[in-house]
Amino acid sequence: MLERIANAARACGRAPDDVALLAVSKTFDADAVLELAGSGQRDFGENYLQEALAKRTEVGDRRPLQSSGRSQADGGGPLVWHFIGPIQSNKTRPIAESFDWVHCIDRDKVARRLSEQRPDALAPLQVCIQVDVSGEATKSGCDPEEALALARVIVGLPRLRLRGLMAIPAPTDDPVAQRAQFARVRTVFERLQAEGLAVDTLSMGMSADLEAAIAEGATIVRVGTALFGARPPRVPGD
Ligand SMILES: *Cc1c(COP(=O)(O)O)cnc(C)c1O
Questions:
Q1: Pocket test for ligand 1, best of 4, 24, 83, 211 (most atoms within 8 A of CB)
Q2: How far apart, in whole angstroms, are the C-alpha atoms of residue 171 and residue 129?
Q3: Which CATH number applies to 2-23+82-228: 3.40.50.300, 3.40.50.150, 3.30.428.10, 3.20.20.10?
Q4: Is 117 near ligand 1, meaning CB less than 6 Å away?
């Protein structure tokens, strides 16, 4: 996967280091996370809160850190956990307490709650605004025109740090249509930068469309099936 990302970056004149891999481990078990962590992967993404919390506990128990903070098993530092699923506003507290990043903020109510509930002992929560560029009825994310106002709210919140934008375009096999959607995200991103906001992250691109996303400036690609294989069915109720 790192080779695929590096090739996509080079193909559009970017440095492979500019694009980070977020391993989307939803529905995969702690063994899968531990195996990938053993090969050096640090960033993991989860969509479902209860599943994520149980998995983190199991991974933490089986991957003891030495007092230096380095893991005995793989010589690496702590894992970085990203929440990438939709957020219900009554579920913000456990997210604020146990994740490093949240990619899918789409309204100021959720942003304010996450900031209020982020424990002082932890670093500020790193967040992205999810923008909807799919034009579909089943949208998730804010309208592109609302992103600037939401960004201004977030930069005023003490326990959040705005990093950039995230998007999930409508699925299509057509690379031209893929790029057109990612280009819309990039346009919003550049508008935030032009307004003086210090954003550095474009979280976009998944197993099927990461080349198009990288060509439009993605700095984090979120990859599940192309890393772990087909997803097993999920236990309902989360
Ligand atoms: C599941 C998921 C992914 C990974 O999708 P794949 O097609 O398996 O690579 C990325 N981002 C989000 C928000 C997801 O829910």
A1: 24
A2: 20
A3: 3.20.20.10
A4: no
**Which residues make Cβ contacts (< 8 Å) with residue 192, sequence separation at least 6?**
147, 148, 151, 164, 165, 199
**Nearest C-alpha neighbor of 187 from the set 174, 173, 202, 198:** 202
Q: Quick one: pLDDT at residue 233?
A: 74
What is the reported pLDDT for 34? 95
pTM above 0.85, yes or no: yes
1 lines ligand 1 (CB under 6 A): no
Q: Residue 102: enclosing H or E segment and its boundaries?
A: strand 101-105
Burial (CB count <10 Å: 0-12, 13-18, 19+), residue 146: middle
All residue ranges of the chain with pLDDT < 50 are 66-67
> 222 alpha carbon to ligand 1 midpoint, in Å?
6
Alpha carbon nearest to ligand 1 atom 7, residue? 207
Burial of 107 (0-12, 13-18, 19+ CB in 10 A): middle
